Amino acid sequence: MFSPSVQEGGPARGTRSSRRRQRPLSSDSLVQQPKAKRQRVPLSENTFVNPDAPPETFEVKPDKVDFLGIKRDGVENFGAPRKELSVRSKKPKPGERLGKGDGSVVLTTNAAYTVSKLPALPDRIRADSQNRQHGAIYSPTGYALSLTHTHALVWPYTSTTASPETFTFALPYPSKHAADPLPLGSLVSPPASSEEPGLVVVMPVSGKISFWESISSAATLDFIRQQRSGVEDTIHGMFSGEHVIQIVDAESAGFILVFSSGRLAYMSVRDSHGRPAISVQFLRNGLGNASGGFLGSIRHALTSSSIRAEIAAVKASQGTQIGERIVVAATSKGKLHSWKLHRGGHYDALAEVDVREDVAKALLQQAGLSTAKPPQDTLEVLDFAFVPRGLEKKYVEMNRLNEALSSGDELLQHLVLLVSIAGQRRQARYALVEIVLSVTGYRLGMLRLLTSYTSPARATALERPRIYLPRPGIIAFIVFDRAVVIASIASLPDSPDSQLREDSHILPAAFEDVIDFRDEDTLQIIGSGVEEPTGNNQDDTRSSRHRTKNPAAVLLVQGVGALRISIADVDRFASERPPEVTAKSKLEQAVFFGVKDDNPLVFQGRRALPFASKDIGDAAIQLSHEIVASKTSFISGVPASLENNMKTRSMYLDRLIAHLNALEVDLDRRTRWMLLYNAEKMNVATHIWQENERFLAERPKNNKKNLVTETIMYIHEQQKTEANPEIGEVDPVRHWFINDVWRLDIFIAWAYQMIKYAYTGRGTDESGINRLLYEAVTINSLALAKAHEYRQQVCHVYGLKPADTPEGDAMPEPWTSSQYITNNLKRLIEFCYQWLDTHYSLDAGSPKSSVEPGPLEVIRNTLPSLTGEYFTTLKEYAQWASNSRDSRTVELAKVCQETLAARDEKILKLKDYDLWDEAVALAKEYRSYRAMAQLIVDQIEAYRQGAALRGIPPAQVQEHELAAKAKEEQLGDLFDQFGLPFASAAYEVLLNTCGVQAVLDFKHDKKGFVTNFLRTRPELAKISWINDVQREADIDHAAESLLDLGLTREQQVWNKKIELSLSKLALMAEETQRSATSDSSSSENEIKKGANLDKVDRELEIIKIQDDLYGQILPSCQDAVDAAAELEFAMKEHAVLIPKKQKALNHVFEESMARLLRHEALDASSLIDLLTLAYLDLKHHDAIGYQFDLALKVASLALKGEELSSAQRLIWRRCYIRDDWKRVNETNMKDDLDQLAVLGETAAYHTLYSIVADPDLDKDSWPTVKPSEALGVFTERLDRRFDDMDDSVRGMLLDAMRWEDAKLRAFIEKNRLDEWYFTTLEVARNTVNYKLRETDAAQADREVNGGVTSTL
Question: In Å, what is the CA distance from 675 to each residue of 621, 627, 794, 795, 1292?
Fold first, then answer.
């Protein structure tokens, strides 16, 4: 408010404003204004001012001017006098809340009070916000006073005009230095001849006094000149360095001047006849027998060097008789003095007490304050207020003050002191203390601590802290330089707790709030006053006085103007539900009134809210919902511009989270998500409304219905706020955006429902459906995209991270991925596929249908982003629901995860509408590597096929080839960008689409991902070894790949033989290469390589045995026409030795035989079954060897350990039971040759003979098993081939094994098979030895014959 000013004019030299009403022509006035002689007005620069523009501001200037101008101290010099003309009132700024018809702007409000900025402010003050000044409010007259070093300004602060009628008084004796104390002034009660108050100004240092009897009549210079001697004077008798510090209005008795030395003086501005006359007299001893000594004692007490105390306040109460006032003075150290002052300066002493000790004790004991020093040492009285008298009975009962409220004794002074005491950590504690002061002493009453404000008072403040207790004495205003505390002292409803507090004289916790101002050098409270309720029977015809039913405080704030703090309903403070300072109310003030930069009030940063974080969080959620739903009185329900209304609501939500962050409130994650969701909905709703306006503009005038309007109309009444046409709510669309934005998820989900209704039930034509679908796709894509974009942008403001997702029941369901949105979004996308397949043509020249192409093209172009949002909703919901405790929700999460995993289908679908690049971008975003690779590979193939078409121009061929090359390069770039996961997917696609050669020949793989791809897929070992040789030159790994393939993975015996052979070749080649390069390999590598070669040799030997066996089986099935007949013939020929009752054993044999005939590589156990169960031609041993000996070789080549031992026992058991040992054991009637012939026909003999005759086997390594040792094998547990079979099948196989075992046991027990085993072994050895001797003899003969021949 109060700024250096433009040079203002001097005193007005014309008459007062014609706009003012006429003074009353009363003949009852005690003092008539003397008639001035008519004088010629001298010409000046203002002589010819247009008289039709009456001035509303007058400047009064004396004849004498102090020409001692000061340049550096900020005190301005006088210039030529000039009128101040009124200007038109400024328009309120957007967003300002105006008061009810008075032009005021509401700065903040709640259920208890309202702070408003009054419009009336003199232009001089508005332009002067830097210079020091102070002032006061005089609510009985409706005027405000402001004083600078050079001027006094008086104006009606209740005026509704921004530039009110202002009286500017140029002070006759301005301050000489800017550092001097500011002039002191007071309005004086109007004279009998005027309704306007007078003005008295005291210069604190010089003691000069100026008095204007009426602010309006002071404009007449003639009157000033005639009354010159009566309106100016000087305080005589001031000490050196002494200055006036306070002027106290004690009218009608006069004024009290308080000096810095502690002295007091009485001043009157009228004589005994009521004429203007200034007189000042110091209050000293000897002014009366009864009272002079007392006033003298005050002066001596205050000026004594030993007990001098700073005067905190001097105030006068309303007297019961005209010309008398009770004056009370309080020192900062707690001394109170009171006396009765009479007109003319006479006084009577009433009381002198020291309350310091008792107040300090009460604060320490009753209030529980703890201080670093004794409380009496830091206790300071700052101000006091008189408790109003003559209150209505109901207000006496409401009040918690002493019973002195109802006392009529004028000598009994009822006071409320404002005291402070030094607290901890450089804080101050303030309290209101009730004192009843009487001639016999004092009583200590109510004690009320102030808990909301603890900042110490600033020593440099222009105004000391002040307390006001306006009628009806329920609410106290405590005014500091940059804060105002509103405290209730009303009686609360009775309760046990309140009764205990009352007995201790401590007020129960009641309403208390603090209004903070910005901490700026140019902004501070420089004056204040109160407005008291006016009764209905009160005769007050002054138009400038503000009439109110509730008390209010009015502040003069430098840099701002006049502010009024008005109580909403004072009676509520003593009701059963009094106003409360809640977390929500504080948030409302900060949100709705803290958004303006020019608001002088501050709502954050000054102090923490006295509420728990959870309470603040709950309040924030409630307020956020009310903003979104327009359920708060601070938001208009009938906005002129809905878009501006929604942007304003979004701004409020932004302000809410900013305020919570400034307060550093510890919000839980649920609260943060809920606040963010509301902000998202508000932001998205604004964009939807903008789209709705665009839809309306696109549609013809006779058909403005669109998807937005139709959706809102069709939403179920239980899912929206129904409009009430009876009260004027006739626009359901705007009504929804005002009241139901918090249900935005339902609106978005309903977009598809409108399409479904239009398509299936309402008979809408294709053009109408096409436009509805266009609008639905636009709204869904826009809403979800803007929501996710906004979330990414502001999540850090809400204390969340971009990658965060709410999870579990404790978190709110993400509104962008609710079940309804996710499900209907899927359906909408699928409907888009159907619609585009029907109506969209890639060839613009040949459209499929007659629907409007523009919207159809938008549907096509929006489909990728809509699909992306669908994927995001699936991901969000799956993450949130997967940790839920609800089983159905968890199941839905699994469905979402499965659907998201199958996202490739929807991405690949986009290529059907020529959205290749968009599909690739979508695949990139959602890391759908297979789809991305498929898209690019398909494009490469399409370009290659296009280039291979016959008859196309060479230029087009070259274009296709270049495009294919560019796509191959793009594929290589994606390899570099996404690494191995994408490369693996790409090679998979290349292999399936283009074949093996495309994988091996792809040249844009800079990092060799193909090698990793092939090596990590065992099924691709056939390709991998080629890559190892060609690309990697890694023969060792190629050999290992082939070896692994041949040993473990290859099913075809011929392929297996080739692969193992190649593996052996590679191993040998590598060994040769190392030998050639003299590469010294480690012994471990040599051992490993030797082991691998041994494996290859073993497997090749097994393959040879299988091939040999196949050669014996083949003749039996050569005539078969198909595989089934082939198997049938083979079984008929070679399964004859298996009893028919052993069906399980027959089945195992049949399965192995089928695999043999299909040329599958048999495992060792299956091959052993075939060799030991098959019937072969008796001469088969001449071609392949004895079948049981081959079975033993397979076992030794393929098996180890226990498996080898069990297999050998099984082979020998079947070998032994192949023959009838009963016939062998019956030796009677047989000679030795016959017996040897019978024994030599047995399978056991042939097998033993093969073993003994094998030169590679020594005696210790013969795989022979005695018959009794072969018993029991596989009778309790089968080999591992049958572990996964049904128990019934396994049971039958075990029965077959037991049958074999029983047969063998019978031969052992009844036919001496164990003994025959040794006999047979001996015969086999003898036979082998005999044949060896024959061979040696034949060799010797050949050598002899050879020698003779050579000799001859």
Answer: 6, 11, 11, 10, 70
Closest by Cα among 1049, 1159, 1148, 1157 to 1103? 1159
Q: Is the pTM of this model over 0.90?
A: no
Contact assessment for residue 1 and residue 125, using Cβ atoms and an 8 Å cutoff? yes
Those residues with Cβ within 8 angstroms of residue 254's Cβ, 6 or more apart along the chain or in another chain: 266, 267, 268, 269, 341, 343, 344, 345
Phi and psi at 448, nearest 5°, equal: -130, 115
Share above pLDDT 90 across residues of the chain, in percent, rounded to a whole number: 30
What are the pLDDT digits (tens) for 772-799?
Answer: 999 999 999 999 999 999 999 999 999 9
How far apart are alpha carbons 547 and 1211 in whole angstroms?
121
Maximal CA-CA distance, the chain:
190
Per-residue exposure over 1201-1238, b if at least 16 CB sit within 10 Å of its own CB, e if not: eeebbbbbbbbbbbbbbbbebeebeeeeeeeeeeebeb
Distance between CA atoms of 321 and 317, rounded to whole angstroms? 12
Residue recorded with tokens 């502040």: 555
How far is it, in rounded angstroms, from Cα 449 to Cα 367? 7
Torsion sign, CA atoms 458, 459, 463, 464: positive
Cis status, amide bond into 814, omega within 30 of 0: no
Please give the helix or strand (H or E) that residue 331 lies within, else none.
Answer: strand 324-331
Parallel, antiparallel, or unpaired for β 166-170 and 57-60?
parallel
β-sheet bridge partners, residue 336: 330, 353
Bin 769: left if φ > 0, else alpha if -120 < ψ < 50, else beta: alpha
Residue in 450, 431, 516, 529 with CA at minimum distance from that of residue 481: 516
Residue 463 main-chain phi, psi, to 5 deg? -120, 140
Given a contact cutoff of 8 angstroms between Cβ atoms, the answer to whether 124 and 147 are in contact is no
DSSP state of 128: B
Could you read off the pLDDT of 44-91 as tens digits, one per residue?
434 333 444 444 444 454 444 343 333 333 444 333 333 344 444 444
Cβ atoms of 533 and 496 within 8 Å: the answer is no
Confidence (pLDDT) at 1046: 64
Element (H, E) at 197: none
* Segment (H or E) for 543: none
Q: Over 60: is that where the pLDDT of 21 sits?
A: no
State the average pLDDT over residues 337-353: 86
- The whole-number pLDDT of residue 566 equals 94
To the nearest whole percent, how much of the chain has pLDDT over 70?
81
Sign of CA pseudo-dihedral 404, 405, 410, 413: positive
- 656 closest CA partner among 638, 679, 637, 677: 679
Q: The tokens 């009701």 sit on which residue?
A: 575
Are the CB atoms for 167 and 198 separated by under 8 Å?
A: no
Which residues, in sequence order, are bridge partners of residue 433? Answer: 417, 447
Strands 483-488 and 475-479, sheet pairing:
antiparallel
Q: Which residues of 578-614 are buried (b: 16+ CB within 10 A; e: fewer)?
A: bbebbbbbbbbbbbbbbbeeebbbbbbeeeebebebe
Compute the mean pLDDT over every residue in the chain, rounded to the nearest whole number. Answer: 81
- How many residues appear in the chain? 1352
